[in-house]
Amino acid sequence: MNIRNCVFVFCIAITFMNACAQTPAKKNKDVVPVELIRGPYLQSATGNSMLIRWRTDVNTRSRIRFGTTAEKLDMNVDDSALASEHIIHLTGLAPHTKYYYSVEDFNSVLQKDTDNYFYTLPVAGKEDFYRIGVFGDCGNNSVNQVSVRDAFKNYLGSNYMDSWILLGDNAYYTGSDGEFQLKFFSIYKNDLLKKYPLFPSPGNHDYNDRDLHEAKAQETHQVAYYQNFSMPVNGEAGGVPSHNQAFYSFDIGNVHFLSLDSYGKEENEYRIYDTLGPQVQWIKKNLEANQNKGWIVAYWHHPPYTMGSHNSDTEQELVKIRENFIRILERYGVDLILCGHSHVYERSRLMKGHYGMEATFDAKQYNVSSSTGLYDGSANSCPYIEDSAHGTVYVVTGSAGQLGGKEKSFPHDAMFYSNADIGGAGMLEVQGNRLDFKWVCSDGVIRDHFTMMKGVNRHNVIEAHKGESITLTASFTGNYLWSNGQTGKSTTVKPVKKITTLFVKDKQGCLRDNFTIEVVPSK
User: Are 113 and 223 in the same domain?
Assistant: First the structure.
């Protein structure tokens, strides 16, 4: 090749390179934008872990970035498997600590804002102020469901809720995945699901799969409910491992919860009222192992007492639960039982031992306390005191979505308060040895509430040296009137007499602690 030809080829090469440099790179048409269509939602919470789930419209990889400040998400957990159903388990977290997080794939951020955060659960047994939401029969995509949700959020305000529980019939009418998407996940996605750990229980509509015979669904549990939720079945959240998604337990501080299944079958035959079945045998072991907990709360779908949209005298499931099952829970000291199914609100006094039909209920015989439990200064409204005369309060709250229905004998004779005309959800608030339950209605009004206490009305005998500073503390949480004029929960005294007596009481005249201080010689 001569010099003229070499120069010509060189010029062509330079021209081609310049053209390439000036042409913008084409975007990869194979990259499909990923859309977040469900979640995120928080599952199987413990004091040192959190499970985060979400769904995308296409298969992609999973990533959660997280940290203790919104500005610095300096930790991450990845899963490189391609999936549309995403589950990431965060471990090694600190108890009762706030973590911010973002939901991502390996190429983009799917959700990240200041409301993407959660608190891990507190250390089991620790006393503090805890809030637990209670939603029954919620998933029907109704005006009532949205109104209850909004009223509940308004009541909560800027306060954090440690968890919320579901009482079954979470997606009407067949419990299909599409109904869960439309009537549950889409309703709560922007607020409750992304911040507060959820602990569900199933109802009959969750088993009412249109493609699988209902009886078969009860046996196999092959329904959307069990695909959509993850439960702490290995005892990681507290209690005895169940190794069964249908029933499990968890602790929030000093409160022990049991989530139960009142509709499914175990080993193809055993229901919750079959006391020899696997679920009841697990319940007994669990309760035996957790007698040291401050409070015990059990929840499931079918109530033992109701005269709302269902009749506990004629519906055999309810009859058998009342006759065969609840006596076990009462025997093991369960303080509060929460159910749905009946699309009303009903609440008993502190009661024990009634397993018959409504007509056999005698308040004098079965109510452990004749108080209303309102603890609001009205007549006969002192808290329910759980002492040697232990009882249980039964609550039906099945109107967070579905609403209404009354039997002819409504309200049930065992109930102190009943309401079938407006929807609502429950808020359980626990502070040490005080438990409060509030029914927050769709219009924001709290139409019923009650208070329970344990370990109050004490008589304390204290030995001290003359002139020694002694701090006395009331056994109850509320308001305080000390015999020395102080008004705080604690008071400090320096005894000089051989015997000094003081007391503290509440303004309602329901509670009183007595203190006897005996001066002993100094060594």
Answer: no
**Tokens standing for residue 13:** 């090469």
Taking the whole predicted model, whether its pTM rises above 0.90 is answered as yes
CA angle 475, 522, 490 (to 5 degrees): 20
Q: CA 350, CA 173: separation in Å to the nearest integer?
A: 34
Strand partners of residue 493: 470
Interval 244-271: pLDDT, tens: 999 999 999 999 999 999 999 999 999 9
Do 236 and 95 reside in the same domain of the chain?
no
Residue with tokens 């229901």: 271
Whether the per-residue pLDDT at 461 is higher than 50: the answer is yes
- Tens digits of per-residue pLDDT, 223-246? 999 999 999 999 999 999 999 999
Beta strands in 174-294 (DSSP E): 198-199, 248-252, 255-259
**Average pLDDT score over residue span 55-59:** 98
Give the chain's domain count.
Answer: 3
Structure token pair of residue 259: 């989530």
- In which element (H, E) is residue 88 found? strand 75-90
Closest CA to 500 of 518, 477, 520: 518
Q: How far is the C-alpha of 454 from the C-alpha of 27, rounded, in Å?
A: 67
| Element of type H or E holding 232 | none
Task: Tell me how far apart the alpha carbons of residues 261 and 307 are, in angstroms, rounded to a whole number.
Answer: 21
Q: What angle do CA 59, 60, 66 make, to 5 degrees?
A: 140
With H, G, I as helix, E, B as strand and everything else as coil, classify residue 105: coil
Distance CA 204, CA 325 (A): 18
SS3 category, 67:
strand
> Is the same domain home to 77 and 209?
no
Residue 277: domain span: 129-454
Q: What's the pLDDT at 214?
A: 87
Angle (CA) 301-306-309 rounded to 5° is 80
Taking residue 1's Cβ as centre, other Cβ atoms within 10 Å add up to: 7
